[in-house]
Predict the 3D structure of the following.
Amino acid sequence: MSEKIDDFYKRSAPLDEILKDYYLNFVIHYGLLFSALFTFIAVIVSTSKLANNTEIIAMLNCGMSLKRLLKPFFIGAAIISCLAFYLNNWVLPETNQLRLDFEQEYIRNKKKERHKNIHRQVRPDEYLFLESYNTKKQKGFRFTYEIFENDQLVSKFKSDFLTWDSLEGKWLAESYNFRELEEQGERITRGAKIHKDFGFFPNELVYQKNSTHLMILPELLNFIEKEKIRGAENIHYYLLDLYQRYTTPLTTFILTLIGFCVAIHKKRGGVGVNLVYGFILATLLILFQKVSMTFTTNSDLNPFIAVLLPNIIFGCYAYYMFRKAEG
């Protein structure tokens, strides 16, 4: 905290931007990140108080079932899940962008504008290379575009400079050399300038780390579809982010059920014992999620299975706890 205050002072960050663009969005980010955990804690505390006051025993003795007792908790979890899903997919990406822009301006070093040795697959069997690229000027140096068929090179386009022409909506290649390999031999075309559509846009050349966290849900779905068409090798990172957005509400329901089952019975230690036991289970769930996602990034584990598997296992355990509490 003190280091950031020093950065704010050194770079003369305005107070309204510190409060609005940084701290407010910081709270929103971590509030949504731990929304399921906060719901879990609230369920344990409220259920423990009911159990300690013997109110749960009284309700059960009056003929109320555990399922009926659980219903208000699930309604609350549904409201929180729907709200969190909307905020995570439509509001949080924009607040993240504001927060990261503020950090880039006043905390971190200036945003890197020049990138070197860019390799990308544009479509299946179509690849590009740029020795350097300036994101601000949207201009690259020593560009190469290669097309393969059956693992054989069929064409190669090279240019000394490549600049995005926003008026034409195409790339302007300067000092270009276009080599086509045909059955009769090679055909080489040279020229000073040419406008050409290579099938990609400037913002698709360089992706920053965690760039999908700055996309709203429709943008992320569209981005993933494009990457699938291109045959991107690192698409599992993007799928992990997508599936996590969809399964967060499920995690909220699972933790709600676990918290309810942990605190349903009166214990000598009261709320404290229930919180400790609950935190152990929540920590195991989070740890399992991290390990499962690591397997996806380092092996061939399907991203959907990696995200869903911890929820399935702990969901089954939550159901077992509930059935045990009913018995």
Q: What stands out?
A: The beta strands are 114-123, 126-134, 139-149, 152-165, 170-182, 185-196. The CA atoms of residues 137 and 148 lie 30 Å apart. Residues 66-106 form the longest helix (41 residues). DSSP finds nine helices and six strands in the chain.
